[in-house]
Design goal:
The chain is an alpha/beta fold. The chain contains two helices and five strands; from the N terminus they run ββαβαββ. The chain has a five-stranded mixed beta sheet with strand order 2-1-3-4-5. Strand 3, helix 2 and strand 4 form a beta-alpha-beta unit. The radius of gyration is 14 Å and the shape is globular.
Length: about 110
């Protein structure tokens, strides 16, 4: 199990996320997907090439990087990916799932 952090979060305590898997950062804090998304997309695609149902995305940082990571993770895992959502009140991450294989008009 791996937790892929979409963008490095300096000074943020992510200790709770470690309980969901090994941590791997997709992009550094100073990197942005500006003007051309291709270099960022290639890096994310390479790192997420083996993304599966056991893995999570921890969504942080540049919204463009978050969107690219979600799209790549879903493509590599039959339209499915899991993510971690921070709950400020409880001070911990909760897992959420996304399945893009829904039928139009269904839930």
């Amino acid at each position: 199990m791996t937790v892929y952090i979409t963008q490095e979060m300096r000074g943020r305590d992510i200790t709770d996320a470690i309980s969901f898997g090994d941590i791997e950062v997709l992009t550094l804090a100073e990197q942005q997907a500006s003007y051309s998304t291709q270099p960022t997309l290639r890096r994310i695609a390479r790192i997420l090439s083996k993304f599966n149902d056991d893995d999570y995305l921890l969504l942080s940082g540049d919204p463009a990087v978050i969107a690219l990571a979600g799209a790549v993770a879903a493509r590599n895992n039959s339209g499915r990916f899991k993510m971690l959502k921070w709950d400020r009140e409880q001070g911990k991450y909760f897992p959420l799932q996304a399945d893009l294989n829904y039928k139009v008009g269904g839930e």
